[in-house]
Amino acid sequence: MNTLNQITFSLFCLVFLNLTYSQNSKDKVRNPIVVIDPGHGGKDAGASTRNGIKEKDIALGIASKIVVLNNKLVENPLMLFLTRYTDTLISLGDRTQLSKKLKANMFISIHCNQAINRTASGTEVFIYPKSEEQAEESAYLGFTIQKGLAYILGIKNRGIKYGDFQVLRDNDSSAAILLELGFLSQTDEAIYLSKEESQNAVALVILQSIIKFLGL
């Protein structure tokens, strides 16, 4: 599915759901809109493990599992959209444009890290402060997710940092973060993030953290 079709399909879903909600109850507040951005895709593989498992596949796997869990496990409290649903390269501009068109409350770009130092490990969250309120919301969202990953799954927390990334810089969401889930250059984290059950666990913690952040 090309970029235009993806955006059109997502917007169609949003309009359909909004119409359904308005028919059922005009006074009912819409579910929060969350855009999950699986980093890289297509010819842009991102980082990779020693065994050749690619960052783009891990990011998409976890993002897709968040959608499944939201739909089946916690009765769909969020309106979730992905910037890509397949192994496709989507431009950074199109990723942020989707978020703007949907008027998303939240934007989370999922990535994995890599370093020359093979002992480097843990999660990192990057934010691009556009206002004091947006910076606070983004930082708290990142803090909530990192706290969950550290407390529940034991993944090291490397903190929240400033990052001049286009998907953050051009984003209008109330909270926008770029989440580095671990280092594929570190053997233990590479093995962990490559496993299906681990991706399910990470996806569940991220979803629970989003719900907690929104107070749902």
UniProtKB/TrEMBL annotation:
Its keywords, alphabetically, are: Hydrolase
The question of whether Magnesium is a record keyword is answered with no
Q: State the Pfam families in the record.
A: Amidase_3
One GO BP annotation is: peptidoglycan catabolic process
What does the record give as EC number? 3.5.1.28
Per its UniProt entry, what is the enzyme's top EC class, as one word?
hydrolase
In alphabetical order, the GO MF annotations are: N-acetylmuramoyl-L-alanine amidase activity
**This protein's GO CC annotations:** outer membrane-bounded periplasmic space
Q: Which residues form the MurNAc-LAA domain?
A: 96-211
Reactions the enzyme catalyzes: Hydrolyzes the link between N-acetylmuramoyl residues and L-amino acid residues in certain cell-wall glycopeptides
**Descriptive protein name:** N-acetylmuramoyl-L-alanine amidase
Q: Which organism is it from?
A: Algibacter lectus
